[in-house]
Amino acid sequence: MSGDVMVPAGTLVGWPLWRRQLAGVLRLELRKTLLSSRSLMLYALAAMPVLLGGMHLLATPFMPEGMASNLGRHARIFTGMYSTFILRFVIFLTCLWMFMNLFRGELIDRSLHYYLLTPIRRWLLVTGKFLAAWVSASVMLSSSTVLALLLMVLPAGPRELADFFINGPGVGQVVAYVVTTVLACLGYGALFLAIGLLTKNPIIPGVIIWGWESINYFLPATLKKISVIHYLQALAPMPPQDGPFVILVEPVSPWIAVPGLLIVTAALLVLATWRAQRLEIVYGTD
Amino acid sequence: MAVYEQGYRGYDGPLMPDCSRFLVIPRYAYKSVFASRVFVGFLVLCYLWPLGLGAFIYGLHNLARISPVPITFDPTEQIVIDGDFFLWTVMFPQGIIAGFLLALHIGPALISSDLTNNALPLYLARPINRAEYVIGKISVLAILLSLITWIPALLLFTEQAYYAGWDWLVQNMRLAGALFVGLWIWIFVLSLLSLAISALVRWKVLARAALFGVFIIPGAFGETINVLFGTVWGSLLDIGGLIARVWEGLLGLDFDTTPIPLWAAWASLLTLCGVCLLILRRKLQPYEVVR
Predict the structure, then answer these.
(1) What is the residue range of A94's domain?
(2) What residue in B sits closest to A203 (Cα-Cα)?
């Protein structure tokens, strides 16, 4: 008698099956992260930079003469807004909410067992959920960033804008902001996915991480490296921070920042998968 | 006993006095709160900073006695213990940081679990009304927050008054009142905000996230408005900034934390409390009509 398992003809096994399962999880999760009532909070967060850009645009007629057409000033203001508001608050909180809910939200809704009862490997489930949330967060936040940038520079007028985007650094800046946003979603997303799986109360670690990221400017060079924001700063066109307590260090090269973020993300995903393999549901405690 | 024999019977046991009946709620709530070792550890950690400050005040007044080398100067002339000292070393760390973390841990679970499990009628079927229910839930937070905010603050004030003498006490009596009133206002705001979010977002994990977001996002948004438009009114959205402004007013300090008028800070905090009370009034219904 042979030890081989008999597989009916036409049944997918191995990579083709995993690809199909991953696509299934992705489809389901994309719908959940983009269309559920819980994503309203994410849309509200993503709308904030656009709202600020819109307010800036509406304030154009009240600006002193010469200020409205000063595109360099508008771009500088947006750079400040991106580094202090969008990156540290909007992207951070969107990722916290979205990735924390990937498993914790299912536990609250008491629907995780539907996934766990299907014949799908846990690593595929984690990967599928992570990819869906990453794509959703990246699309949502990149669109918000680009839209906010456009609204901020619009008061400069068509000639200045054409010069900025065709001959100037406009396109490069847009690409830099989008890449930074996408990588921020990747880094923070993996971190909060792991925390959401490892702890029952992911908000407290989230608050501590937020505090750590906020004081990054004041940390010594060695400690700065243990943060996501330090690597993101190397990618976005951000102004150097100044102040009496700020510790200035040499910025990280993008050639180190990007692979570094990818390696940390991979390590966190491995940790999340390891935790998901041992996941047991106790709905009563939530 | 057959089921039909277990008809409804009203409670005929001893009743607590009307004025202290709401304290039944914290009594039961603390059983679950103190079951968490993480929380107990956090509460102990909250006392390390005031203990350190107590040691600092002691050292400041007794340096000549405890120092192994002769001291040629008076340290109390170098470091003045005044309103600024209490604002930056007691009210901010104990009130805003430790107080907020405590509220974040305890607050969102207070009402959400009652609403999620339809347990509100079980409370209101007893001799307790909605107002007492809310006061009881607020007191869960208020008692714990008192333990880490105004009580250590007043103990430090008393220690300083003991060492500095009668003259200092008479000159700085206002500080004691400001510490007590200021921190109680913060406790009230924080408790109401936590309860309102707990009633709105019925899952405690999400309610915690919402409370964190409500606390930091409007402040950052307001600060960005300030920078974009060269105004100060964006600070009205910063809850931490508003209470800091009120504290400065109570302590009689120069205003330098938040650049808005004092009346505007008071008005914003009152509006916030009013909105929270409206949410609680709307959400805490003893019954729900499902169509």
Answers:
(1) 27-60+69-285
(2) B209
Structural domain contains residue A167: yes
pLDDT of residue A245: 57
pLDDT at A1: 46
Full-model pTM: 0.82
| DSSP 8-class letter at A36 | S
How many domains would you assign to chain A? 1
Ranges of H-type helices in B117-238: 120-124, 130-148, 150-164, 166-171, 173-200, 204-229
Q: In angstroms, what CA-CA distances link A264 with A205, A228, B103, B291?
A: 18, 9, 32, 50
Structural domain contains residue A6: no
**Nearest CA to B77 among B168, B159, B179, B166?**
B168
Q: Do the domain assignments include residue A239?
A: yes
Q: Which of A5-19, A109-123, B49-63, B202-216 has the highest mean pLDDT?
A: B49-63
Task: At A230, list the tokens.
Answer: 């330090």
- Are B120 and B284 within 8 A, CB to CB? yes
B212 and A84 within 8 Å at the Cβ level: the answer is: no
Asked whether residue A12 is domain-assigned, the answer is no
CB contact under 8 A, A89 and B205: no
Is the CB of B45 inside 8 Å of chain A's CB atoms? no
